[in-house]
Amino acid sequence: MIAAQLQEVRERMELACKRCGRDPESVTLIAVSKTKPIEMLRAAYEAGVRDFGENKVQEILEKAPQMPQDCRFHMIGHLQRNKVKQVIDKAQLLHSVDSLRLAQQIERDSAAVGQVTQVLLEVNAAREESKFGFFLEEVEPALMQIRELSHIRVRGLMTIAPFVMNGEENRENFKKLYQLYVDMKSKNIDNVTMDVLSMGMSGDFETAIEEGATMIRVGTSIFGSR
Ligand SMILES: *Cc1c(COP(=O)(O)O)cnc(C)c1O
């Protein structure tokens, strides 16, 4: 069942790429396996998935050692500062850096173990009360401070768009994030690469791809509802 669902998601990704003239290789599918048992991750692995998304540090700590070495775990949920130390050497990419204080903690813990941690800044593009993340206009000032932190590399931006029935409704939010991404990339800020744009979930990943996503995070359409 997971193999078939994956197949369908990949076909929809390819069609979206075709519609906007993008190379399907330029979009990475992250299978969001939060709350799902290890057997389901293994089934996805068998069907070719290597990138998994989790929103809790504890789940990454439990699942990563049980999966083959070539799996990459992405931290996509709100990260508490006291959990940073546990996760920085287990996750491939932290998608949810939503405050300067969190970035400073990541800097300290990364320096302590002598690594450079790859992160995305989370952006609350739709200005939702309930969501974490920087507002669009806060991103550049934040990058100007984070560039001083030599153990953090900002690879790009991430957004969790509002929950919608029709992905089309999020097109404007995705457009705004893409514009900011291109704009920040053009500034060539130290320690900032801007080659990852993480946006799009089960309800809206095709629209996100059309608007420039390089990573989409899909749970329900692969693993079923939670
Ligand atoms: C759960 C989650 C997803 C996946 O959502 P689906 O609608 O199940 O595809 C993507 N991103 C984040 C940050 C999530 O927490």
Return the structural class.
alpha/beta
Helix content: 25-40%
Spatial strand sequence of the major β-sheet: 7-6-5-4-3-2-1-8
Main beta-sheet strand count, sense and barrel state: 8 strands, parallel
Sequence stretches where pLDDT stays below 50 over 5 or more residues: none
What's the rounded overall pLDDT mean? 98
Task: List bound small molecules.
Answer: pyridoxal-5'-phosphate
Care to count the β-strands?
Answer: 8
Secondary structure layout:
Elements: H1 2-20, E1 28-32, H2 38-46, E2 51-54, H3 57-63, E3 72-75, H4 84-87, E4 93-97, H5 100-113, E5 117-122, H6 139-146, E6 152-158, H7 171-186, E7 192-198, H8 205-210, E8 215-218, H9 220-223
Parallel strand pairs: 1-2, 1-8, 2-3, 3-4, 4-5, 5-6, 6-7
The structure holds pyridoxal-5'-phosphate.
Pyridoxal-5'-phosphate (PLP) binds next to strand 8 and helix 9.
Can you put this structure into words, describing what you see?
This protein is 38% helix and 19% strand. The protein has 9 helices and 8 strands. The chain has an 8-stranded parallel beta sheet. The relative contact order is 0.16. Bound molecules: pyridoxal-5'-phosphate (PLP). Residues 32, 34, 55, 76-77, 160, 201-203, 217-221 line the site of pyridoxal-5'-phosphate.
Features:
19% strand; 38% helix; binds pyridoxal-5'-phosphate; single chain; 226 residues; eight-stranded parallel sheet; 8 strands; alpha/beta
Q: Could you give a short description of this structure?
A:
By secondary structure, the chain is of the alpha/beta class.
